[in-house]
Specification:
By secondary structure, this protein is an alpha/beta fold. The protein has 2 domains: 347 residues, Rossmann fold (3-Layer(aba) Sandwich); 98 residues, GMP Synthetase, Chain A, domain 3 (2-Layer Sandwich). The chain has 14 helices and 20 strands. Helix 14 links the parallel strand 18 and strand 19. Helix 1 crosses helix 7, helix 11 packs across helix 12 and helix 13 crosses helix 14. The N and C termini lie far apart (53 Å). About 1% of the residues have low confidence.
Length: 466
């Protein structure tokens, strides 16, 4: 069946690419001027066309507004008022939910002019995000022009000559999968060289899938890259990679070293979110540079107060300067970010940041014959979210064959959701050769927090019974 073409404006894409290229070499004052101009445009559009922001921004001078004086809305509050939040009255949450419930429509244009994806609900609240051609042009330009490019890549900056395999969740309208399918439809050359591989399958089948593709570039999450690097070092996986791209989780120095040792190639880190895909990219010095000409991040403490430069905040507020259809203004993202005060040796004036993002554990459960089966945290989360509809949960390993699945919610509905989660987990574990695992469901239990108070959803605490 012929697939429909996703939104794409060639002229807008080229002009946006020109703006991104110029800003890449701009000084701090030039970057600040771009931010101010784009923030004023965003506030003007939101005040004029979003019923929600029309109330909140009444009397605000968009050209002189101070960002810290503007209100914040949680993801829950925005989704609850979705139809008043967006600036296009043709967008309705019910219709978007029906659209994203159909996996056959991944990357199809919505209403003929939008690209839509959903978040995984990692913060306990699944969300839908709508992008128009203008926002997509910004994403495309940032990905193409600010991704770290080795000298050997100069003749093929778009990687058209490489076989790229993305290992992740492949069954829903997730941002990564929608983006991959969109690129495949827009570029026939990429369609033959850009592949997605599910990380929900057992490791031996995942290895077989990668062998069948024989990719030269691997794109995945740090935890999955570490798992695959272990398979490579053990001789069960035999890939000849030129690069590994990671994102979506915290990449520690130890994880980077293991991946580099396993595959014998460079690791390129990026930082993004469903709300804004290319938030930051790694330079040749290995530093993460925020794309501060198109996005504003405010690092704040637990009370929402600004955190001084050089300190790590409790959360970060995102203001998306490219998406005027679904305004994200001082939107709590949840990651913990620290700004570097010194300029980067690469010469870029884009600010350098360190990010403490998702850092869940890979679980090791006893499988057939007593062997330990490694299970990726994002795979486990995907099963609980997509198969059981469980968003606000925590999964704690308490031994080689004991798990505790909990939620802060109470009552019959919470117990029923946990039971669905337990059944989904047991089916998933059986498919990976793990049997005899007990899953204890516990409603009304507060989440166990990691360092800095950040929520971790999948934790391995062997031998601990809390």
């Amino acid at each position: 069946m012929l697939k429909s073409t996703p939104p794409f404006d060639p002229w807008l894409t080229w002009t946006t690419a020109g703006e991104v290229l110029l800003a890449t070499h701009a000084d701090a004052a030039g970057l600040a001027a771009r931010r101010s101009r784009r923030l004023a445009n965003l506030l003007t559009r939101a005040a004029r066309e979003s019923p929600l922001y029309a109330q909140q921004l009444r009397g605000v001078d968009a050209a002189r507004a101070q960002l810290q004086d503007l209100p914040t809305f949680s993801k829950h509050d925005l989704m609850a008022r979705f139809d008043d939040w967006v600036t296009d009255p043709a967008l309705h949450l019910d219709g978007l939910r029906r659209f994203t419930a159909d996996p056959s429509r991944i990357a199809d244009p919505y209403l003929g002019r939008y690209t839509v994806w959903e978040s995984s609900g990692s913060s306990g609240e699944p969300s839908v995000f709508v992008q128009d051609a203008a926002a997509l042009a910004v994403y495309d330009a940032l990905e193409a022009l600010r991704r770290r490019t080795p000298v050997a890549r100069l003749l093929d900056p778009l990687y058209l000559g490489e076989c790229i395999a993305f290992v992740g969740a492949t069954g829903g309208h997730f941002a990564s999968l929608v983006s991959i399918e969109r690129l495949r439809r827009l570029n026939p050359a990429l369609a033959r060289r850009l592949h997605d591989v599910s990380f929900l399958q057992p490791v031996d089948r995942l290895v077989d899938s990668l062998h069948a593709l024989s990719p030269s570039v691997l794109s995945t999450y740090p935890s999955a890259a570490v798992l695959l690097a272990g398979e490579q070092l053990a001789g069960r996986l035999k890939l000849r990679l030129k690069e590994v791209w990671t994102g979506g989780e915290t990449l520690s120095p130890g994880m980077r070293r293991l991946i580099e040792e396993g595959f014998g190639c460079s690791v390129v880190q990026s930082y993004g979110a469903s709300e804004f895909l290319p938030l930051a990219a790694e330079c040749v010095r290995g530093a993460l540079h925020l794309n501060s000409d198109w996005v504003i991040l405010e690092s704040v403490d637990a009370a929402g107060r600004p955190v001084p430069e050089g300190e790590t905040g409790a959360s970060v507020l995102l203001t998306h300067l490219a998406n005027h259809v679904q305004p994200l203004i001082r939107y709590p993202l949840g990651d913990r970010v620290r700004w570097h005060s010194r300029a980067c040796g690469c010469g870029s004036h884009l600010p350098v940041i360190e990010v403490e993002g998702r850092s869940d554990d890979t679980l090791g459960l006893r499988g057939r014959g007593g062997r330990i089966v490694r299970l990726l945290p994002l795979a486990l989360s995907t099963v609980l979210e997509e198969e059981a509809g469980l968003a606000d949960f925590q999964l704690l390993q308490q031994g080689a064959d004991r798990l505790r699945l909990s939620t802060p919610a109470c009552g019959p509905h919470a117990q029923s959701a946990l039971e669905r989660g337990r059944e989904a987990l047991l089916r998933f574990l059986a498919g990976h050769g793990v049997a005899g695992v007990s899953v204890h469901c516990q409603p009304g239990r507060a989440h166990r927090l990691g360092g800095g108070g950040k929520l971790r959803r999948v934790l391995a605490v062997p031998g601990v019974d809390e």
